[in-house]
Specification:
- The chain is of the alpha/beta class and 290 residues long.
- 33% of the residues lie in helices and 14% in strands.
- Helix 2 crosses helix 3.
- The longest helix is centred in the N-terminal third of the chain and has 15 residues.
Amino acid sequence: MTDSSTVDAVFVLVHGAWHSSAQWAAAQRALTARGAASVAVDLPGHGFDAPLPSGYAEPGQPGLDTEKSALAGMTMDEAAAAIVAVLRGARRHSQVVLVSHSAGGGPASLAAELAPELVDLQVYLSAFVPAGRPRFADYITAPENADALGASLYIGDSEALGAMRINPLSTDPDYVEELRRTHYSDTPAAAFTRWRHALSPDLPIAIPTTAVTVTADRWGAVPRAFVRCASDRALAPATQDLMIAEADAAMPEHPFAVSTLPGGHTPFAARPDDLAAALMSVLRRPRAAE
């Protein structure tokens, strides 16, 4: 375990689709035990303040597949701005490590592009990297991702709804099992029920479909690491490797430092202590002032 007196780092943790800051709690406790500070971000439209479809928690869930999302107008710029605001508060530490999971890689990358001086290291936890292809959708639909699960989880017409909508409260056992296999394959069954009930149903459609432009002298100048999830069924390992390779080819000055965790897409649920150890292992010295 790292001596807490030697660590002056803060991890800024950005969740993925349908999640919130709350799901990082166990990993944050594990980071604290290793002497590192952390702060988890709620992206706009997520967390306890997230608006829900009006019938979501009602019997029969009326209108769930047709009601337009209250998050339909949410933009990638708004999501990135929320991260930048947290990064500014974290800058008092000698190392600021920006960690993003899954779909959170888009807004986190844009935040680092907008304010690279606020980030000493970017860590992608099975997360979208836009340097090779600008939209998360470009990778989700790539042939390398053909083995991924989860396509059958979407409800309604995403473009009409303005959101990628899922149904964490579904009573259909086949649907619930697909959700488990996709996102929580190695989370204990008893805990999975609690985890899925904590999810929000709507991901603003801008998050997977908006192009994120990053440049070599801003985003590309920040050292970066990628933590692969070896048995990921939401974002296939082959897709993770494709993003790494394309980013390194596009911006070779700071190639990814790559490590791998066993298990599925959400190690903060299944093995938070191992995740904290992986995050601590990628700490680097902060960049010299320019």
